[in-house]
Amino acid sequence: MEQLRHLYLPWRCKSRTKLKLGTLRKLLTLVNFNTKNCYLKDLINMTNLRELEIYGPFNIENFNEEELGENPPIIGSKYLHSLSIINYIWRTRISRSKTFGRLFSGCTSICKLIIVSNISKLPDCHSLSSNLADIKLSLYNLEEDPMPTLEKLANLRILKLVSFEGKEMFCSAQGFPKLESLSLSGLHNLKEWNVDEGAMPSLQRLEIWECRQLKMLPEGLRFITTLSLMGKTFKHRLEEGGEDFYKVKHVPNIIFHACYLY
């Protein structure tokens, strides 16, 4: 199997199952990796990985620094362009780790990132690849505004933010210079979203779903060509004659969904 290029593991394995994958150095794709059934150190040997999906428990604390040296990179491939971390059931495992940022330390080429987990704070922007263009975040218990970190990613074009627990978000001037599509979904506590003039100059599409306490769009959104909103509150305020219609009157394509809700 040393010539294997693509490996798709099952979603679940028996608890006693332990897979040694360290000899699969030519792997390009690895899906459903977890630290319950696999060895974390084997990722270092996979120096050709292009796509990695972690599904299930992922415990960075069991990384053996005594055996591998001090602060080694967790992912050994410099060619990785897509990373997914999906922790629905065991999501507390990754949030407790103080070395979470190290997971990205060697991922200098990553373009697409998906995280579904219980994380209270994003890694520092310097830990994230400057090549990131597509990000989806579903972060349980995240109360700190993620925008000051994400807006510094100069090549980010698509951002989907789900399950942010905070009440306020702020996008500063010159932030998100290349962002074209932004989706906010399930931000149940979000009440206020401020956007400085000059932020998100390339934004063309904005979607807002299930953000029930957010009543107003920011003043700074001037370049949107497609606006997709859910709820009757937005419809009443943004349709012609509404108090916030002036903010979106330039938008050629406005879509309202489920206008019978809130």
UniProtKB/TrEMBL annotation:
Record SUPFAM superfamilies: L domain-like (SSF52058)
Highest taxon of source: Eukaryota
Keyword Repeat listed: yes
InterPro entries with a match to the protein in the record: LRR_dom_sf, LRR_R13L4/SHOC2-like
One of the Pfam families matching this protein, by short name: LRR_14
Keywords associated with the record: Repeat
Ranges for domain Disease resistance R13L4/SHOC-2-like LRR: 2-215
UniProt protein name: Probable disease resistance protein RF9
Source organism: Gossypium hirsutum (Upland cotton)
